[in-house]
Amino acid sequence: MVTAYVMVKANTGEADRLKTEIMDLDGVVDAHIVAGDVDIIAKLDVDSTADVKAIAADGIQNVEGVEDTQTYIAMD
Amino acid sequence: MRFVIIGAGRVGLRTARVLREEGHDVTIIEADANKAERARTDDFEVIEGDGAREEILEQADLESADALGALTGDLNVNFAACMVGKHYDCRTVLRIDEDYREDIYRKFASDVDEVVYPERLGAIGAKNALLGGNIRAIADIAQNLQVVELTITEESPVKGYSISELSLPANARILAFGKKDEPMGIPLPDDSLAVGDRVAVLADFAVLEDVRQILVGDASRGAAEAVKGGT
Asked: B4, B90 in Cβ contact below 8 A?
């Protein structure tokens, strides 16, 4: 099991829609709209690091209104 | 009133000066030693430290402050300061760094009473300067909706018309009318449009140029320049 956190920078004010679309992706277990220099933090629980890449790069990055992502894989 | 301003950069320091000029008490919190020193030279009471930390904010005596302006360029600092400020019952104002975040903070940040995006206000000023003398943007109501004040010129196609005879595009409304050198008031159907009279219009950005041509006329920009050039 691999847990990862993805920081999402948006380029739109439609934070609700972004959160819903990100939550709908398989492997995303939680997401929050946050204050600060990123707009949403999503938590992933998946089988392998390859899945992390697939969800962050192909899933989240392809959501309309997502400008950039930064992924952190948990080590504990 | 008493205000605590976080950040003594271009936005924070200027805001502090305006408040002081109007007779208010201002305490500034600034993390950068050089900026703090500059604000002190300007005779402000400055607390040097991280405005995101409660123990620093407490030194500014938030209990007695009416409002807190989190005006640094760092959104994390600004948000943390507003959370602490709200805890002390201050009115809180947060500066954002990108315009799309305005809606997000208005909707989700319950500890923030007001959001400011200084670049938007700067853009209104720049736009006024670019548009020239006979049209002046007063406020951006929404991204595509603004209130502008137009002055009737010799070239205005509607010069001599009454307000009731005026036909504006569907996405525009007349909000106020003022005779030359008189204050603005509620527009009445019989008010007549003479040179120098001003009309405040709420208009969609798409029809703003049409509104300008109807009320001010085509040659107005050139004419305004010519007048300025002649003096």
From this structure: yes
CA nearest neighbour of A22 among A13, A33, A31, A14 = A31
Provide the domain limits for residue B180.
Answer: 124-230
CA distances from A27 to A7, A24, A52, A73, B50 (A): 15, 9, 8, 14, 38
Q: Do A13 and B76 touch (CB under 8 A)?
A: no
| Residue with tokens 């920078």, as numbered in its chain | A9
Q: Are strands B145-151 and B135-142 parallel, antiparallel or unpaired?
A: antiparallel
For residue B43, count CB atoms less than 10 angstroms from its CB and return exposed for 0-12, middle for 13-18, buried for 19 or more: exposed
With CB atoms and an 8 Å threshold, state whether B75 touches A15.
no
Q: Do B108 and A13 touch (CB under 8 A)?
A: no
Note whether B105 contacts A: Cβ–Cβ < 8 A: yes
Q: Which DSSP string do the residues of B130-192 spell out, in sequence order?
A: HH-TTEEEEEEEETTEEEEEEE--TT-TTTT-BGGG----TTEEEEEEE-TTS--B---TT-B
Report the domain count for chain B: 2
- Predicted-complex ipTM score: 0.76
SS3 state at B225? helix
Q: Are residues B57 and B88 in the same domain?
A: yes
- The hierarchical CATH code for the domain A2-73 is 3.30.70.920
Tell me the pLDDT of chain A (76 aa) as tens digits. Answer: 899 999 999 999 999 999 999 999 999 999 999 998 899 999 999 999 999 999 999 999 999 999 999 999 999 8
Q: Is the pLDDT of residue B67 over 80?
A: yes
Q: Is B76 on the interface with A (CB under 8 A)?
A: yes
Give whole-number Cα distances, A62 to A41, A67, B34, B187, in Å.
16, 9, 43, 51
Of A13, A35, A39, nearest to B102 by CB-CB distance is A13
